[in-house]
Structure formats: C-alpha cells, structure tokens
Amino acid sequence: xxxxxxxxxxxxxxxxxxxxxxxxxxxxxxxxxxxxxxxxxxxxxxxxxxxxxxxxxxxxxxxxxxxxxxxxxxxxxxxxxxxxxxxxxxxxxxxxxxxxxxxxxxxxxxxxxxxxxxxxxxxxxxxxxxxxxxxxxxxxxxxxxxxxxxxxxxxxxxxxxxxxxxxxxxxxxxxxxxxxxxxxxxxxxxxxx
Length: 193
Ligand SMILES: Cc1cc2nc3c(=O)[nH]c(=O)nc-3n(C[C@H](O)[C@H](O)[C@H](O)COP(=O)(O)O)c2cc1C
Prior knowledge:
Layout: H1 2-8, E1 15-16, H2 23-34, E2 45-50, H3 52-58, E3 82-89, H4 100-116, E4 120-124, H5 129-135, E5 142-153, E6 158-163, E7 173-174, E8 179-184, H6 187-190
Parallel strand pairs: 6-8
Antiparallel strand pairs: 1-5, 2-3, 3-5, 4-5, 7-8
Helix pairs in contact: 2-4
The structure holds flavin mononucleotide.
C-alpha cells in the first residue's frame, strides 16, 4: 500500500478545476503532518490553506517546471484548486534553515495523505516569498518556506517513472504526446558500498 502511494505521489502540474479539494480534507492532511517528527520537537511549521480563489491569487507568484520552458504549466483551465503555504514561525525558533528537514517530512506526509484521498500535488519551492506573504497578509514572523499546489489530477497529465540516463542526467522531460518522464536513479547507484 505504502509503495503504491509512493509511486502515485508524482509532481502533478495539471489539475481538474471542476473538482476543488474540500478544505476539511486539507485540514486532515495537515493534521497528519502535525504528528510527523520535528527536530528537538520544536514544531515551528505553520500552514496557510488557500481555496480555489486564493490559489488563483498566488499562482502568478509561483514558477513551474523550469526544465520545460516550452510548456505552459499548469495549462490554462487546469490550475491547482488549492495551495498550502508552509511557513516557518520565527517566534518558535529564529532560524528558518533549522526546520528544513521538518519541512521535507511534513511536505511528504501531506502529499501522501492527499494521494491516499485521490488528490495530487506539487511542491513549489520557486516562488516570491515576500509577495506571497504580503498578498496573503501572513504575519511577518512567519516565513513562507514552501508552497504545495493541490488538486484532483487532470486526465491530460500522465507521469512515467524512468531510469536515470547512463551519464547520470536526471532532468525530467516530455515527449511529443505530452507524456511526462521522471528519471530516477537505480537502487544500486545510490547505495554506498
Ligand atoms: C523542495 C522541492 C521544491 C520544488 N519546487 C518546484 C517548483 O518550484 N516548481 C516545480 O514545477 N516543481 C518543483 N518541485 C517538483 C520537482 O521538480 C519534482 O519533485 C521532480 O521533478 C521529481 O518529480 P516527482 O516529484 O514526480 O518524482 C519541487 C520539489 C521539491 C521536493
């Protein structure tokens, strides 16, 4: 089961706008992330949940698929229907770089929870944190550190796991049918003997 969820948990960049994610579902996913490990158990991460209207507001402040400059992603009419903006609360701990590992664990917990419920997402690390904070009126002590785009998967998005190239290149790519390939390194290539 977990293996299946891990396989299905791909970075989607096209969503079905007719099926917005209910807020209660997102709160459940955050509730799972809440229970995840945290360095020194400080728990400095806080979460801003955006509905479809809020998602449209921040979408222009996000950057998608830098490796595919010829594609407009997400496509028009296939935008994410929700976002979670994960923030580091500097009043809990001043240095936001100290919560990077917490952040990864929390993001994965949230995404796997979403996939279990039939939704998908994409981590967005490339965004204008200052503008996002301003537009959403997030208190200044909260530093936006990662955005997670969420929605129902769009049928036009097919993501295929591939093997990394022999030269070690792992850049994702799309073919002429718009199939999205994500090269992963082989197990033997990541084990240090
Ligand atoms: C911390 C982090 C930040 C990311 N930031 C972006 C981003 O700004 N824009 C984007 O389109 N994808 C982003 N991604 C998605 C990666 O490109 C994606 O995980 C990678 O291509 C592998 O695909 P997969 O998630 O389907 O395995 C990010 C992923 C992670 C983990």
